[in-house]
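Example 3.2
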Amino acid sequence: MPFRIATFLIASIVFGLGAAGIFGWKFGWLGAWLGAVLWLALDAWRAERLLRVLRNNASGLPTRGAGVWGELAERIRKLLREREQQTRQAEERLQEFLAAIQASPNGVILLDEQGRIEWCNQTAAAQFGINAERDLLQHLANLVRDPAFVAYLASWNYSRDVVIDASGHGQAQQRSHPVRLSVQVHPYAGNRRMLLTRDITAVEQAEAMRRDFVANVSHEIRTPLTVLAGFVETLQNLPLDAEERTRYLSLMSQQSHRMETLVNDLLTLSRLEGSAPPSGNQWIRIRALLAQCEDEGRGLSGRLVPQGHRLSFTIEAESEISGAPTELQSAMSNLLTNAIRYTPGGGEVAVTWRRLPDGRGEYAVRDTGPGIAAEHIPRLTERFYRIDRSRSRETGGTGLGLAIVKHIAQRHGAELRIESTVGKGSRFALVFPANRVREARLLAK
């Protein structure tokens, strides 16, 4: 302010002295008034120019000049720069936050007070089948018409979640089971709401598998237990001669052995699923594995049918394989015993081991049994899946053999291949990766 007063007085004095020097002292006062008016006009012009720039978003503020208006312009420019920097930083943080929400596997939708979409990430858009840009400010209840969801959204009681079927484009069609969503609403900022969605399809499938597994185990164990209970009651209440008693005890022994086999298979599956993958440092000869398979196979064949089967075991390349010996033996024996059980007496079962041109190793079991229809092949490795339950029980199968083989194959990086033609027989093969197979002579000493 002192500077403005000083410049005002200086302008008046200079113009007054100028007028006095040119026109005489009697015109000095007129020059002083003229200087004051010109100073006020210049000051008003500078103020107007600053206001004009500010009205146009302050994009052309002049550089710092003399006087209060110059200092005011400089201070305003500095404040605007700071505000722009803060705005830019806030925008960057907002974009980072939105990018993080976009990357979330869960869906997020923000609703205003009227229930209209303010923002949603792509996960929620895909789950609900809406467009994240086109459907902004649309009422979510008009886009998602599931009755349970609409009632939940309108209830304003969000102490629990609601589970609905997703209507996302292409999601349900790409899966064998419909997509299930858990939706939870959280109010915030007054009557605004945030929806969090979570795909619980895998959780529900796992729960369904658990229920089915428990039901299957219960059924498989209940059957031999019922038979055993009946035989025990018969032995307790009926007078039996030695021959009948021996026959009943033999049948009881069969059922108890069946339960023992089932429990052992269940324990094997549990151990396979809960243990670490086998290392590649332990090597075992293929010939030793096939020799044990041959002993088990010939023994089983003689017990099942009097005439037995035509069994052959061929090793095309002396090899060694790395992994867990007990697991490898179990997988190979399961494939062989399955072929023997389902091949009629006198049929052929051929076991071969060979090295493939790319270095991989293949253990294959081919039989001349009845074959398997194509629709059953994808489900053969499911637990307790049987094509013919009555025949499986007659031959002592538990329905877990191929499930065990699949787990062992996965733990060793191997591939289980199944080929079958109805009426001509089947071929089951385990193909091991090249890094788990080598020539046997490499370890010969």
